[in-house]
């Protein structure tokens, strides 16, 4: 027995979320339709509003509703420090650690030639323009400790060195193969404190 086309479409849409397979998507779809139609409507409304309002910060590429995100607008941030991360989730994790008070650049991914993701797809030209302004004195490479993250960190580190900017990599505490989004605040704080030149 197959579901109605509308239910099938909802299940397919839910499978676009990370970690959601066919069975999870079916459970979610049926729950929303059977038991929580008000919640489903709230989710649909919030998603529509977010899609209309949220864009990328013109300076750091983070997600925001403004031209510049709240971090880039803050006069309390150390603009001589620029932390390069792969995703907004990584930025949030670092902010929660309380160990860093500089600014960020969010790549929205990592270099992965096999997947067709090169410097252009990561907005590297925007990062280079930011480095060329002369305000940044140190680039902290906080990409994930995966093969792709390491390759991305090496690439960005070279861009910084070419401009005479100090390039450091987050240090111990973050497990190799781990992703920043899942690391606790204390571990992230230790990683920032012990960063090293690359």
Q: Work out the helix count.
A: 8
CATH class of the largest domain: Alpha Beta
Mean pLDDT, nearest integer? Answer: 91
How many strand segments?
7
The portion of residues assigned to helices is 40-55%
CATH architecture of the largest domain: 3-Layer(aba) Sandwich
What gyration radius follows from the Cα positions, in whole Å? Answer: 20 Å
Strands of the widest sheet, in order across it, are 4-3-5-6-7
User: Strand-residue fraction?
Assistant: 5-15%
Largest sheet: 5 strands, mixed
Low-confidence stretches: none
Query: What structural class do you assign from the helix and strand content?
Result: alpha/beta
Distance between the termini: 59 Å
CATH fold field value of the largest domain: Dna Topoisomerase Vi A Subunit, Chain: A, domain 2
Q: How would you describe this structure in keywords?
A:
198 residues; alpha/beta; Dna Topoisomerase Vi A Subunit, Chain: A, domain 2; 8 helices
Structure description:
- With 198 residues, the protein is of the alpha/beta class.
- It folds into two domains: 49 residues, RecR Domain 1 (Helicase, Ruva Protein, domain 3); 121 residues, Dna Topoisomerase Vi A Subunit, Chain: A, domain 2 (3-Layer(aba) Sandwich).
- 44% of the residues lie in helices and 14% in strands.
- The strands form two sheets. A five-stranded mixed beta sheet has the order 4-3-5-6-7. It has a two-stranded antiparallel ribbon with strand order 1-2.
- The longest helix is centred in the N-terminal third of the chain and has 17 residues.
- It is elongated, with a radius of gyration of 20 Å.
